[in-house]
Amino acid sequence: MATPAPELVAVAEAFALPGVVSAIAPLGNGNVNDTYRVDTASGVCFVLQRLNTAVFPQPELVMQNLEALSAHAEQHPLIGQRWEVPRLIANRHTGRPWLLAEGQFWRLQSYIEEAVTVEAITNREQARQVGRGLGLFHLLIRELPPEQLADTLPGFHVTPTYLAAYDQALLCSPIGQDDREQWCAAFVEQRRELAPILEDANKAGLLQLRPIHGDPKINNVMLCAHTGTAVSMVDLDTVKPGLVHYDIGDCLRSACNPAGEEACEPDSVKFDLDLCETLLEGYLDAARTSLSDTDLDYIYVSVRLISFELGLRFLSDHLAGNVYFRTTHPNHNLARALVQFRLTESIEAQEEQIRQIVAKLR
């Protein structure tokens, strides 16, 4: 086993570990933060993360939200099942759950043992458990007052904000001769009226702000390695006040596209109705009491909008020179945008069936 980098060991050992560091290795494939698994001589593992302060310019507020969530979870545990919220580990020198070192912001959290994530749904039971995981998370935090949470990412999951950012990117980098760029730009133009639909419903009092996860894609739901049941949700930096519909839509968008976000052939992208129904069954089994009939009415709108929104974000980042999402080639974000827009088309083509699924599960 390779010797862990001394600088990472020094960061990890600034926290209150139960033993010396024995190994450090990259963990996951997130697009924003740098994440590592830390093994200690005591046998206990942890998750070390360097927060991307370009994305989270006020990381202390992120940590305050995590502390509020952790305290609430301790006071309102989900009885009768395994459900874990990652614990923050204190800096041994300051007592705070973070470390600021050479301008970099670090934190250490507990590691969810004997649990795994999936990058793509391979069977209906996985879909059920991913939906159940989000439902349990919403059930856990439904009584957490949203005013106790800071809005760490103003404009995050507020689609009109992304449309405005796209328009600004267009001013700086107009669409060229690339057929894919032109197709994506035309796709956006045809759906401009879609952008404010959830925000307008909120302003009209039809939908209410609540605590949300903010990024409930399938690989943020931890499944028990033995039973396959949902046991945790991770990547909690985006927990903030918002509309649960962004969570529901994002979870469906992520889970019900078997081709995945990185599909090489956009024409292979389809929204899978069987996975949709099974995921919603799992979600509503856990969280139905948290939702009004009006909330249910907006589920189709949500999954359509969030797919469009993510495509818009990828396209804007492509035009801006790939400054937000990590990429492996210059047109990576353009390819990602194509996938999300093809998924949006598939969702639109199956509107009646999706609405029938929701009606069946009421």
Automatic annotation (TrEMBL):
<keyword id="KW-0808">Transferase</keyword>
<feature type="domain" description="Aminoglycoside phosphotransferase">
    <location>
        <begin position="24"/>
        <end position="262"/>
    </location>
</feature>
<dbReference type="InterPro" id="IPR050249">
    <property type="entry name" value="Pseudomonas-type_ThrB"/>
</dbReference>
<dbReference type="Pfam" id="PF01636">
    <property type="entry name" value="APH"/>
</dbReference>
<dbReference type="GO" id="GO:0016740">
    <property type="term" value="F:transferase activity"/>
</dbReference>
<protein>
    <submittedName>
        <fullName>Aminoglycoside phosphotransferase</fullName>
    </submittedName>
</protein>
<dbReference type="InterPro" id="IPR002575">
    <property type="entry name" value="Aminoglycoside_PTrfase"/>
</dbReference>
<dbReference type="InterPro" id="IPR011009">
    <property type="entry name" value="Kinase-like_dom_sf"/>
</dbReference>
